[in-house]
Amino acid sequence: MKNDHMEFYPVGAPDEYLTQIGRVVEIGGRQIAVFRLSDGRIFAALNQSPHPKGGPLAEGIVSGHYLYDPLYDWKIDLTTGLVQAPDTGRAHMLPVKVEDGQVWIGAGELQTTA
Question: Which UniProt keywords apply (predicted)?
């Protein structure tokens, strides 16, 4: 599905994602961490910590709309991708929409960089 020059890929129904538990899906050979918050909102990011040493994000702990990096305990705002002070950085967030009982992730740029 294309939307404003962005390619969206189906990754399952919302209820396939456990609340506050990250899940990895693959799009274009890249791992995407998907999170469903307790309020039902769904967010997606590259499964790569913004920490200089990297690491997975999907294994992090979700509280409210924040993700706590599983290796470095960085607090990441899932609505913006911004790492909270005193740390700095930004997770690579991807657009998400839910339509017709399906979660769609906008990841067109991943196809060209994978």
Answer: 2Fe-2S, Iron, Iron-sulfur, Metal-binding, Nitrate assimilation, Oxidoreductase
